[in-house]
Amino acid sequence: MIQSLKSVFKIHELRQRILFTILILVVYRVGGHIPLPGVDTEALSIAAQSFQNTLLGLYDMFAGGAFQKATVFALGIMPYISASIIIQLLGAVFPYFQRLQKEGPEGRKKLTQLTRYGTVAISALQGYGVAIFLQHMNAGTSAQPMPVVPNPGMGFVLLTVLTLITGTMFIMWLGEQITDRGIGNGISLIIMIGIMVRFPNVIFKEVTLISEGVRSLFAEVILLGLMVLTIGFVILLTQGTRKIPVQYAKRVVGRKIYGGQSTHIPLRVNTAGVMPIIFAQSLMFIPSTITTFMGDVEWLQSAMRIFSIDHWFYWLVFGLLIIFFTYFYTAIAFNPTEVADNMKKHGGFIPGIRPGKRTAEYIDNILTRVTLPGSIALAIVAIFPYILMNVMGIDYDLASFFGGTSLLILVGVALDTLQQIESQLITRHYDGFLKSGKLRGRRRF
After folding, report:
1. How close are the terminal C-alpha atoms of the chain, in Å?
2. What number is the average pLDDT over the span 212-230?
3. Nearest Cα to 127, choosing from 190, 63, 177, 46?
């Protein structure tokens, strides 16, 4: 491992890519500390304490804490992600977007352009909502008001909307620069860094608890062991695949012979990735978000007891929603009929299965069976942090690193970046991080 790390910095191009990526991420973090003009940051820090278990808290996690601080990067990269998801969903419904997805580089270029336009539109809508929301926030009382925006008005709204749109587009540009000139997927790395910035604060809290005698060193060792086991389980879930063997018949084109090879279709156990948890969590946070805005309404407070994150009913509904959205998003992300048609066009077939409709049905049947354990495992990973909060009494910031959206994103992005570095090393005849040149996280189920 040490020798491989040395090899990384021996290769000039790879070293330049890594340093460029680090520089861009530093720029992103600096922008995450520049507050919006016209906002009282002290009053905002007091008023934002109610964000933690609401939809705003989920949004703040993707923005790397910038939303809670009302910085120029307050919207983060979420408008771009939302626009990308909308374009992808439209591709499953409208023929125009389906054609663009099949047109190769030109089609992808057009989809990227539409995604950028969508990002501007979503940023404008969300920026207007943030401006209005900030104007109505008050950290004080009716007797001693402490408004977050001392001088509200249309000027503040327009300036805030323009600033937030610019911030989001700049983040999107930074992500594209990392993808083109750095290492790894730029957008994913930006989200990952936004999550990781909370980890030093979590460590500081745990050290303080040990020094004050609130938590024993033995309990911390147990937590560390659980974290290692959980990360290992998430790696297996992320890398697990079911391989379907495929053979290609020999074809004679002119004087050349094509095909005659054996390969496989890797069906991932978790094809949907982290998206089911994001969708399910967004729905589960709606009641608490409404309660935050509605105030102390008695019947809402009573209903919120069963939608609290420490209630078993919340865990049950959350898990069922994750299973549902896993199947839903897998059906959108992977089309067995399209895969079967492409195989048939290129002379490929699954041994013992007729090409065409029967092949599509066979792939769909296997995908359905593989997705079930994957969705259940995904639900367990998502619920595990809430169980730890109840059993061991740890706070939300620490628990979020034991599962859920945070851990899945961290593991997925880290594995993807590591694979890209590994391929760069092997291409230049260096040993990778493993002698075989493959990550051991790959498993066949």
Report:
1. 28
2. 85
3. 63
CB 418 within 8 A of CB 433: yes
Q: 């004679």: which residue's tokens?
A: 252
Q: Please give the structure tokens belonging to residue 375.
A: 């969705």
Which long-range CB contacts under 8 A does 112-116 form with residues at least 24 apart?
114/87, 115/80, 115/83, 115/84, 115/87, 116/83, 116/169, 116/172
pTM given for the model? 0.76
d(CA 288, CA 305): 10
Task: Give the pLDDT of residue 120.
Answer: 92
Residue-wise pLDDT tens digits, 52-109: 555 555 556 555 555 667 788 888 888 888 888 888 778 777 888 888 877 778 888 8
253 forms bridges with which residues in the sheet? Answer: 256
Nearest to 371 by CA among 321, 339, 323: 323
Cα 148 to Cα 43, 57, 122, 154, 317: the distances in Å are: 5, 18, 24, 16, 36
Q: How many CB atoms lie within 10 A of CB 10?
A: 11
Q: Residues 186, 174: contact at Cβ < 8 Å?
A: yes
How many Cβ atoms sit within 10 Å of the Cβ of residue 93? 10
Q: Is 443 a residue whose pLDDT tops 50?
A: no
Distance CA 178, CA 389 (A): 36
Give yes or no for residue 260 having a pLDDT over 80: no
Six-digit token pair at 294? 């509605």
What H or E segment, with its residue span, contains residue 86?
helix 78-91
Strand partners, 257: 252
Q: Provide DSSP, 155-184.
A: HHHHHHHHHHHHHHHHHHHHHHHHHHHSSS
Contact by Cβ (8 Å): 326, 371:
yes
3-state helix, strand, coil in the chain (%, to 5): 70, 5, 25
Rg (the chain; Cα; Å) = 24
Model pLDDT, residue 169: 92
What's the mean pLDDT in 358-377? 90
Q: β-pairing, 240-248 with 251-253?
A: unpaired
Cα 60 to chain centroid, rounded? 13
Residue 183 contacts residue 17 (beta carbons within 8 Å): yes
C-alpha dihedral sign at 26, 32, 37, 39 = negative
Report the alpha-carbon distance of residue 184 to residue 130 in Å, rounded: 31
Bridge partners of residue 245, in order along the sequence: 264
Please give the domain boundaries of the chain with CATH numbers for all domains. 1-197 (1.10.3370.10), 198-445 (1.10.3370.10)
